[in-house]
Specification:
Helix content is about 25%, strand content about 20%. Helix 1 crosses helix 2. It folds into 2 domains: about 70 residues, no CATH class; about 140 residues, Glycogen Phosphorylase B (Rossmann fold). The protein is α/β, with parallel strands linked by helices and about 230 residues long.
Length: about 230
């Protein structure tokens, strides 16, 4: 039986589509329909599922409690399965990333910006707490990632990579292995390549429920905004 899964017109973020990779892992025959607004995420599904940009795209709506991926898995009576996202990289991609990152000392990926639409909710008022994290962990090189649409430089970061191809970022994350920052698609990307995350979460509100975005995994740690300066890596 073929399963058609996808994101609709308002679920077009990186995190939304990475949650679909859990379905690709646990269902045998999956086809992913990607909304045209999210076409940049098409490469995420290379090696793991057939995927194409379709308009109008199927929108998979999960239900019940738990993480968004768990809610999606529940549609197929798979709510007990591992909801962590997972993508596949080839050896060449990883080797290229390792060569690019060779100049850095124990690098850490940092992402302090996300969707412009949710900037008021998901981002800290200033980057000063993140700059304190960089300062307090000076034994490691922080590399900032983001998009030019919404990017606030963090003083002290050794380098910044902006608007990179998503598979190139994934390969770099695979080599780096640790992400600190806000609740954004980059967090899910690090988890999808087997890395660890420390993420600052906003409080629950009418537009945000922590339960929907928190992974129950020892690889994933979460802190409140006020505790960001205490982060150790």
């Amino acid at each position: 039986m073929k399963y058609i899964v996808g994101g609709g017109s308002y679920a077009v973020g990186l995190g939304d589509y990475l949650c679909l990779t859990a379905l690709c892992r646990h269902l045998e025959d999956v086809e992913v329909h990607i909304h045209p607004k999210a076409s940049e995420w098409l490469p995420l599904f290379k090696y793991i599922a057939k995927a194409e940009v379709v308009s109008p795209a199927t929108h998979s709506l999960g239900y019940g409690p738990g993480h968004l991926a768990t809610r999606l898995l529940r549609l197929y009576q798979l709510a007990d399965k591992d909801p962590l996202p997972s993508i596949a990289l080839c050896g060449h991609e990883i080797a290229t990333a390792r060569e690019l990152l060779g100049q850095f000392n124990k690098p850490v990926a940092i992402g302090v910006n996300g969707s412009v639409h949710w900037k008021h909710r998901n981002e800290l008022p200033t980057v000063e707490p993140w700059e304190e994290v960089v300062k307090q962990n000076a034994h490691r090189d922080f590399i900032q990632f983001g998009t030019g649409q919404n990017f606030t430089p963090v003083n002290g970061a050794k380098a910044a990579f902006v608007d990179m191809d998503i598979r190139d970022v994934a390969a770099m994350f695979c080599v780096i292995g640790t992400f600190v920052g806000i609740s954004t698609g980059l967090e899910h990307l690090m988890v999808s390549v087997g890395g660890n995350t420390i993420v600052a979460l906003p409080k629950d509100s009418p537009t945000y429920k922590r339960e929907m975005w928190v992974y129950q995994s020892p690889r994933c740690q979460y802190v409140d905004f006020e505790d960001v300066p205490k982060i150790k890596v």
